[in-house]
Amino acid sequence: MEQEDGKLNPSEISNDHSNNSKRDFLSKIFITLGVAFAYGLLAFEGLFFIIPKKRKTEKIKIYGGRLKQYKLGTVRAFYDLQGNEILIMRDDAGLRAFSASCPHLGCKVHWEGDKNEFYCPCHKGIFNSQGTAISGPPADAHQSLKKVSVEVDEKSQIVYIEVNKPRRMSG
Amino acid sequence: MTLNTKRWIVAGLSFFLLASLLLVAYRETQRKLFEEMQIAVVTADSRACVECHKNDSPALVKEWEYSRHAKVGIGCVECHSAERSDVDAWKHEGVYISALVTPLDCAECHEKEYEEFENSAHAKAGELIFNPESILAEDTLEAAGQTHMSNTARTCQECHGSIIKFARDEEGQVIRTGSQKKPFIDPETWPNSGMGRFNPDGSKGSCHACHARHAFQASLSRSPTTCGKCHMGPDHPQMEIYDESKHGIGYYANRERMDLNKRGEWVLGRDYSAAPTCSTCHIGSYMSAQGFVEGGSHDVGVRISWKLLPAISTRVNLVIFEDGYKENYPEDLDAPSIGDEVVTTETVVENEMAVNKEVTRKVAEVISWEDRRETMIGACLNCHNDTYVDNFYDQFDEFVENYNEQFAEPAQNIMNMMQEDGLINPKTPFEKEVQWAFWDIWHRGGRQAKLGASMMGPSITRQGMYKVSEAFYSRFLPAVIDAAAEKGPDMEKKYRKMVEEVLSGIDHK
Amino acid sequence: MKSKVPAGKTGFINKLDEMFPMDWEILRQAGAEPVPHHLKKWWFCLGGTVLYLFIIQVITGVALTFYYVPFPEEAYQSVATITQEIRFGWFIRSLHRWASNFLIVALFLHMFRVYFTGAYRHPRQINWLIGFILLFITLAFGFTGYSLVYEQMSFWGATVATNLTEAVPFAGPTLAYFLRGGPDIGDNTLTRFFVLHIGILPTAAFIFIGLHILLIRLHGVTELHFEGETVPEEKRFFRFLPDHVINELMLGVLLLYILTILSLIFPAGLGTPADPNVTPEHIKPEWYFYFNFRLLKLTSLNVSVVFTLFLFMAIFLWPFIEEFLQKKFKFPDVLSVMFGLVFVLIFLLFTVWESFAL
After folding, report:
1. Cβ contact (<8 Å) for B6 and C247?
2. Is B9 domain-assigned?
3. pLDDT digits (tens, 9 = 90+) for C263-288
């Protein structure tokens, strides 16, 4: 048993004096299961922590003035809750709202009243009053201005614009 | 300890750990999300205002940011914008605005509340300015033929409301000052947020009298202390009565659990239950016995069955006309029927002066005082059972009737007779001792007693009756004789006899 | 020594073995280190406990860094978001908070154990020095970590602490300037504390923990001999694997269990956000600094700082000091124990006293 230096061979030291292999087996199963499940659940919960929750963007209606403030054939500008500009125009068909962000590369378009079109100065993109691009790079790519939902309350004649509810960091 | 035992121990501990982690997972699913800090929405229109005014008047802007208005994008311009033609409008930083925000402005969005309010007794508060007591506060300038309301500006007007007037030049044009040509409002009439303020746009009142700006916090308007700003004092001590009553005690002890700031409807029996506030009984919604939400009107008078403030109180039926105008009809006066055309007298402001106009209106609805009382009782029944409520009303009704019979009617009869006999002049209502005494009987003591009885403030009621008795016996009756004596021995004899008749009556022996 | 690949294994294994020619036998030998019998007593598992808790701190700490924002305007809010919005955020944060407290308690206990069993004596003096450095690192962890929350107490505690640093002789003002990143607590300060907490201190900790463990393995765990005690030869040692490991596992699972329960019942909360313009009535550091704080209140700024420094140096160099005293003045062992006891009692007394004071 003894090694050269007088120490016991470590692998032969045992404090285990029982000899019940069946009990051993059962305890081994349980300890493995127990530890695996416990730490496993912990790891699982940790994963939930690290991976943020996917939340569908909520919408909120913001106040956009009263219908009578919108003159036929003109366009009014609003900002949504994230600072993006929205253009609302009124024509015979009613109110129409578009994001002022040009679909080409994101520059701000503005309304040219005399020409009845939206104009993007960056690459001379032009959109008609329906928001469809008719000239310039956006037209080549068959793009149009992103529509924004707008509605008028019958009774109070208030214009409501539907925009994304801003979220701060969330999990 | 064998290795095997240790394995079992670890296995056991692991399962405990597993159980606790499952609890963690459970707790996680139960956890309520922190109410997201909502940000104020500054629309393009109001952006310029906020940018500048957040330095000029930072607390004001902060209050607005806190409000529900800000959360949905109602900013400065939405309430303060004005038409160029409005008398109170001027161009400020490129936009026509007015400092005056009237109920008509609020009605843009809050139309229902506006209609209820405009036809209520609150909106008529401004008309009470022409009652005798305000004469005590006026400083008449006979030479100019004008009445300076400076003493009433800080007293009567502050609650009842002023007539908004502008400074005008010789041609009657509004004087405008400064580079922005701001219209100069007569400082004796503004600032004012009185309940019945006569606004230049024809509307009456001011919503922010109860819904203080700019946070417009619900808990403020639902709190009894808001009403108490005006409904207090010797001539109508509702605040003191409420404070004394069990209702008030319940409120002050429990307001933390009454969810006063609840957004939207605030219903007794559903959202709160600890105690009623002023708004509970007089304006607010409550759960009806059938399980529906009932009540809820900005007309504070709809549920009132007694008109307690006049010298002699009567129960009142409500007549509602087609245009929404409402009038109280005392029960001893026949109410018109639906469809009748009635000539009503309405106080309006024309050319910045209050005038009484006669307007013919058609009756649309008549609500009896019993029905009005039923609406009020709906709130009582949330906490008290019918016997309790019925008996209370029996006690209350009897109290008012006793007061009427014992003091008010005899005193009023004598006053009427004295007026006929030329002993007192209605145009000088405080000339003689007898007039002061009569005032004390009904305007001070009587009201205090009746209101105290109506809202269960026993000590105040008692004090009110003391005032009534004291004024009646020790001042009024002797003063009647004195006033009569001034006109001669015949008068004196006549009134002495009248006084003796009163005193020998069954009520006073 | 070439590794012995068991006969009968496929050529694939051979190939792997050639790619990574590690001598696996050495590993097995290292794992089979015999552990002295007295380590069966739980008292001796404290070092392992500290290590285990440290690992928990690293894991939870890294997780928290996914969401924490180290800028003054946003720090508090990010902690609030973690606590209130992120899934299991409250749990991870509470674990981190509770484990930090347990870690420091276990560390103190471990230190006491090492001291009172004389395990710092020759030839193990260096390990004592390393251990003390680790203590210092841990306290710095606690201090910087708490400041990151940016509550009122975080801010003002950091203010007091950096002002105290000023009083350190010679290096004080420079040190304070370094800690603050300027003349006052400001933007720079939070960033610095953040870098310290997640970068510099962990790296230093890893290095010193590595050295600490290495030295333990090199020296072997101190065998204890109590007077008159005889231990049968076969019971002198027991296997590291699986016996000691399972002991540590027991302790580990138990610890995590207790920490989870504490996180459920007493989750980490949030005080009011830091406001440089408003000094709270009662500023208090974390409990492990109560001793220093009480000392400060009893004496003056300079006295307490100098005295604390002196104390730290004395504890740091204790193995050498004791050796000197024993050689020169025939200091008996029992006197060291007395010294230790007195110090521990005073430490406890001051700590408890401060906890009751306003």
Report:
1. yes
2. no
3. 999 988 888 888 888 888 788 888 88
